[in-house]
Write a structure and sequence with these properties.
Elements lengths: L2 H10 L1 E5 L4 E3 L7 E7 L2 E4 L4 E4 L4 E2 L21 E4 L3 E7 H6 L5 H22 L7 H14 L1
Antiparallel strand pairs: 1-8, 2-7, 3-6, 3-8, 4-5, 4-7
Length: 149
Amino acid sequence: MDEGVLREISEKLKPKKYTPDQIIIKKDQTLEMMFFIVDGRVTIEKANSQLQLGAGDLYGEELLVSPLWTSSGDAKPINESVRAIDDVQALVLSATDMATLGFSSRRSINELRMVVTILQKVSSFLFRRRIYNDVTYLIYIMFSSCLRN
């Protein structure tokens, strides 16, 4: 993956904060974003179960393999909600922004999956140490160094 794509992805990631008990994703709505948890915890609430995610975890990876972020109109509502347990800081990539990145081919989707894997690996390193200044630049630097090795 070239550095231009990495830069473009890092520029589209938006830092966002959620407060305790705030609903981040509502059940029965179309999934419109994927987010990486930088700090804090969320709970995924389904009909009969709950799952907690924390720093370094990702939610919404279905956007990588489904038509949710395309203009096809085939998107289905999700059957779970996501709620902040405590103060949460996240990096959000919206479905709209993902569509503008041009990830339409299998190769491009695999490249985005690689980016997701890298983000998962470096986010806990960066953000558990409270390094929040210029988040997108730091992620770009980490992407670049990981891909060169």
